Structures are given as C-alpha cells and as structure tokens.
Amino acid sequence: MFVARWSLSRAASVSGSVSGSFCRIPVRTCSGKRFNVPLSAEFVARVSGIPTMARLPHQDTADGLDAAFIGVPIDTGTSNRPGARFGPRQIRTESALLRAYNSGTRAAPYESLRVADIGDVNVNVYDLKDTCKRIRESYRKILATGCIPLTMGGDHTIAYPILQAVAERHVPVGLIHVDAHADTSDVVLGEKIGHGTPFRRCVEEGLLDCKRVVQIGLRGTGYSPDSFEWSRAQGFRVVQAEECWFKSLAPLMAEVRAQMGSGPVYLSFDIDALDPGFAPGTGTPEIAGLTPIQGVEIIRGCRGLSMVGCDLVEVSPPYDTTGNTALTGANLLFEMLCILPNIKYY
Ligand SMILES: [Mn+2]
Predict the structure, then answer these.
(1) Which residues does the annotation say bind Mn(2+) (predicted)?
(2) I need a labelling partner for 254 at 20 to 30 A (CA). Which of 40, 227, 260, 336 fits?
(3) Average of pLDDT values for 85-90?
C-alpha cells in the first residue's frame, strides 16, 4: 500500500501529461480497490522498488485474491546442475519488464482478477521431505481461499506436493505437463522424492485423471529404448519433441482441449521443455527442444479450460548468464495468468 501511494504522488509529479487527473494514471489506488494494478514503467522506473512478480503488490496470504504468484525456492531435488532455488528471485527481477496487457491475445488480467505476489513457501533447504510437507500445507491454505496459485519454481519436485494439495479439492485432476523429461521415474539413487519422480508419485496416489494427462516436448537420451513407455501405459498422451518440430502447436492444443474436457486442469511447465538455445539457465538441458513461440502456443491453447493452478519450474539463474531464461519464465507465467477462467479480453 505504501508503494502504491508513493507511486501515485510520484506519478503525478513526474508526468505532466496526465492533466492533473489521477484516475487516468494506471496505478493501484485508481482501481477502486477491486483489483491490484502493477506499477507501470510509464510512471515508475523499472529499476525502482522492491521486485515483486510483475510489480504487483505483495501480501502475506492469499486472502481476497483470485490468483497469486508464489515462489518455491528449492533445488534439493535436482539431479544435475543446481541453482533453481534462486529461480523465484530472478524471475521476479526480470518480470519488471512485464506490462499489464497481453498484446497478442488482448487479455486484461488485472481488470479481471485480483492478483498479488504472496512471497515464497518457507522451505527447508536441508530436508526435501520436510520441504514437501511445507509446500503441501502452504498450498492447502492458498487453495482454501479459492485463489488459483501460479507457482515460480524451484525444481520440479514441487509439483508433487502442490498436486497433493490441489487434488484434495479437485480429484482427479487433468494435467498438461510441458517438459523435456517425463519425470516419472520410480526410484533414483534410492530416493522416491526428487525432480525426476513427481508424476509417478501423483499417479500412485490417484491424484491424476490419467486419461486427461498430456506430456509435451519429451526428448533426449533415455535409460531404455522407450523412455516414455510407463507414461503411455498409464493412459497419458505423450507428444515427443520430434512431433513438435517445425510446426505450430495450435492444432495440437485443440486436441488437448478436447482431451481435457470440462474437468479441472493443472499446467506444469518445465522451462527445459524449451530448447537450451533459448533457455540455457536450467538444470537438465536437452537439445532440440521447443521454441518460445511453441511454449506460448501451448499456454494460449489452454484458454477456456478449467484451470486450477499452473507452475513454471527449473529456472536456474547461475546458468542463466543473460537473464533471458528467467525473463522467458516471467513471460510464460504472465501468459498463464492470461488464460485463467474469467479473464477479460478486449
Ligand atoms: Mn521436469
């Protein structure tokens, strides 16, 4: 609130073009308190202020929100390059470039939903199982308010406790999983919990509607000739990266919408689904991946579905020397916000 008020007076003093009319300035205090409006770089410099996601207000809980950005800063489930624990912070920093409207789809998320950044889950960086418990309990509280969580990871382990909490309200849930990897291993190095196992655990616990699961972008070397056999045996639709090469994914998403039907759907997007040429800052990169355009097509293709939550995981800032991986993650999260139910489109 302090920041918003400051921005209003600051905006009035630095912008002579608003003719003294505060209500033409797109800041939060002009929104009639119904919606949160992010600070606009037209009036407050991008480099100024505390870096919340999309320059939205921060609040401690999800109370009163329709959707919330939340960070889960862990990489203790990572099998290769670490660093995803720094993902939420870097995504927030790069998200200062985001503006309020989606020029491509004409979505106006901040005229539709009350959104805020509600900070991070208080994780235990020494104990992954305890972290999973903390995530599950945090998401229970978020979901109890009716708020839709938009999660910034963190490694992909987090999808398991998040989906446990989601499934307490929406079981079984459909899943659109965008990733280079199936993340359906059973045991890795003797451990059941890690970033390669979350969806196996979800299936074992009956959280997923397996006929309404699609995995898009899978590729790379495997431990066996058919790395994705287990997924197909569960009834998942598997769309390997090779099926995506050189084409628009809009037709695929029409089929995915038909597959998902009217039931609840969760979107889990691992940044390593994208080619490492576009998104090198990640823990387990695989060559010959999706383009950012295809990533956006997948998310925009989710419009109209009964989305109950989304995540963007595996951004690893130490391997992201330009910041472009985090910037891509920030934009994909904004695209996710823009396809939630009840979004206004101009
Ligand atoms: Mn993954």
Answers:
(1) 156, 179, 181, 183, 270, 272
(2) 227
(3) 98
Whether 30 shows a pLDDT value over 80: the answer reads no
Q: Cα(270) to centroid of ligand 1, in Å?
A: 5
Query: Omega into 172 within 30° of 0, i.e. cis?
Result: yes
Ligand 1 centre to CA of 163 (Å) is 14
Q: What's the CA-to-centroid distance between 175 and ligand 1, angstroms? A: 13
How much is the pLDDT for 322? 98
| Percentage of residues in the chain having pLDDT higher than 70 | 90
Binding-site positions read: 156, 179, 181, 183, 270, 272
Q: What is the DSSP letter of 53?
A: G
- Residue 33, pLDDT score: 56
For residue 292, the CA-to-ligand 1 centroid distance in Å is 17
| Range with the poorest average pLDDT among 27-41, 57-71, 177-191, 293-307 | 27-41
The verdict on whether omega for the bond into residue 64 sits within 30 degrees of 0, i.e. cis, is: no
DSSP bridge pairs for 175: 213, 266
Average pLDDT over all residues of the chain = 92
| Distance in Å, CA 170 to ligand 1 centroid | 22
Token pair of 211, please? 């006929």
- Report the C-alpha gap between 180 and 342 in whole angstroms: 31
Statement: residue 14 has pLDDT above 60: no
pTM of the predicted protein model? 0.91
Strands, DSSP E only, in 76-207? 115-120, 148-153, 173-178
Q: How far is the CA of 313 from the centre of ligand 1 (A)?
A: 7
Share of the chain above pLDDT 90, in %: 90
Domains of the chain, earliest start first: 1-49 (no CATH), 50-337 (3.40.800.10)
For residue 179, report the distance from its CA to the centre of ligand 1, in Å. Answer: 5
